[in-house]
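Structure tokens please, single chain.
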Amino acid sequence: MLQNIGIPGLIIILVITLLIFGPTKLPEIGRSFGVTLREFKKGTKDLMKDEDDVEADKKVEEKML
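Here you go.
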């Protein structure tokens, strides 16, 4: 669905967002969105790391048997 937006669609979305929130709130909204995205990426990395650790532990246990 998001692949079909294009440049004109993004411009329209940005103009509507500017009208709704105003120019003073946009940097704050962008900052909070960036923090949220960073936390999501960190959580995803931690989850993948934990999964890799579990797989490595299983391989060590298999070798010990």
